[in-house]
Amino acid sequence: MDVLRVVLGDQLSHDVAALQGLDPDQDAVLMMEVRDETEYVPHHKQKLVLILSAMRHFAAELRDTGIQVEYVNLDDSENTGSFTSEVQRAVDRLKPRKLVITEPSEWRVQEMVDGWGADLSIPMEVLQDDRFFASHARFAQWADGRKTWTMEHFYREMREGHDILMADGKPEGDRWNFDADNRKRLPAKTTPPNRARFTPDEMTQAVIEMVEAQFAQNFGALEAFGWPVTRTEALEALDDFLQNALPHFGDYQDAMKAGAPFLYHSLIAPAINIGLLSPREVCVAAEVAWRSGNAPLNAVEGFIRQILGWREYVRGIYWALMPDYAVTNALNASRPLPEFYWSGVTDMHCMHQAIDNTRRHAYSHHIQRLMLTGNFALLAGVDPAEIEQWYLAVYADAFEWVEMPNTLGMAVFADGGRMASKPYAASGAYINRMSDFCKDCAYDIKQKTGPDACPFNAMYWAFLIRNEDTLKTNPRLRMPYRTLSGWSDEKQASYVESADAFLDSL
Ligand code: FAD
Ligand code: DLZ
Ligand code: SF4
What we know:
- By secondary structure, the protein is mainly alpha-helical.
- Helices cover 49% and strands 5% of the residues.
- The chain is built from 22 helices and 7 strands.
- It has a 5-stranded parallel beta sheet with strand order 3-2-1-4-5, sandwiched between helices. It has a two-stranded antiparallel ribbon with strand order 6-7.
- Strand 6 and strand 7 (170-171) form a beta hairpin.
- It is globular and about 80 Å long.
- Iron/sulfur cluster (SF4) binds next to helix 14, helix 18 and helix 19.
């Protein structure tokens, strides 16, 4: 055999670097289901099904085009359980001249791959993952010498460099950012569209049965599994989004509604992250929708910013700051993660909705992650490592390179402001403004302290009081600290006591 080409579970793109130039007569592809990867966090059952089923479908597609695929099933009796030992076993068995792999997306796996060069007795090539807009070097070039790494600045360079939503060197609509138009509450009578979901075929059904049997204790339900597991399905999901949801994506990007887990979001992060869709084709498709008059600019710009901006930016942050980034804890938060993050059992209606969506669909949309589960963990002072592991486990789209900066940098401010210029801390008023949760909640949104008051209210002020030394000088927190300075010691103490009483009761 000439070249053994390794494809990992999030590299399921037919044009991924390691498959470019493949010679079907001389090369083979190695794909491995391994226990190390299925167990390094207690993945949601749907995430396990998604990845293993998509891997099996991808292998079948390669075989259909005449490519030799060496596929190791999780249950193969000889499966040694790790990427490293499986690669070694394949090299011993197949005796290739050379090993080729696309750079892994995660630090943990990159560390493994770095060790292979010395262990294997054959040459090895690690290729750049060209599915991203910005290489590691491109991000480093942008970040180098800048005091602050502001996403908006990075995003503008990406727009210009990749000529997306540009006209004669200027942003379309003469504005880079239409966020101000994108903060609407969903009107009570508006019903969000039904979304394309995919019925499991025989191959997925077999994985569902295996996961039910072998990962019975893992978080999450499988009944509603509907994620695309092939490129064909992923393209259908993208088309459904473009037709039915993109036109309102901008308006209701930050809205929340009880019983409506998906609203106008795209639901394509799992497919992009494992390689079934390319970020480039998705951005181009959204731009075409605007140019053909099928979606307004505020929606299309807002959507493209998430992918061309945020997604590329968090990847840059991750690779620039790992491995130290993983243990950052700027606010010295240490509270254990409350049990209700796993059970969903809480009288807080908003938190119940977010966690129940997560349990049923391995999904909750961005504003639920940031302003509900994230905001709660921030205000409660949950240990960043614990909340980070929760996010990594529970979403179908969760991969450390994208999850970790979003959690540590955006949600809980553990990086002390590397990513966000201020903590995304909010009281119940924000949640009430953006959702319909509060009217059906056991707690009273209007009360500030006491056992019946919305817990977010006292927790918000207690958070500011607890972290005053670290946060008071933040220019974007001048207003709330000015308000606090007008409070008597007794008033401040009553908020802290109310927040502590609630948190101690958990
Ligand atoms: P949409 O709302 O439709 O957005 C479109 C696309 O933009 C997404 O599919 C995604 O590819 C990209 N995107 C949007 N926001 C972000 C962002 N902040 N960072 C990176 N890409 C973004 N996203 C993941 O892909 N994996 C994760 O593990 C993950 N963990 C998160 C943890 C926390 C605490 C927070 C606050 C956000 C996290 N996100 C993560 C970002 C975002 O919430 C999800 O990408 C989004 O909710 C996925 O749903 P969607 O496909 O419907 O996205
Ligand atoms: C997340 C995951 C899981 C659950 N299982 C596998 C697997 O069995 N085989 C595989 O190749 N990849 C899996 N993955 C994805 C990896 O954990 C990891 O995210 C990628 O290799 C990128 O670093
Ligand atoms: Fe959430 Fe508070 Fe509203 Fe209840 S009252 S839904 S806890 S914000």
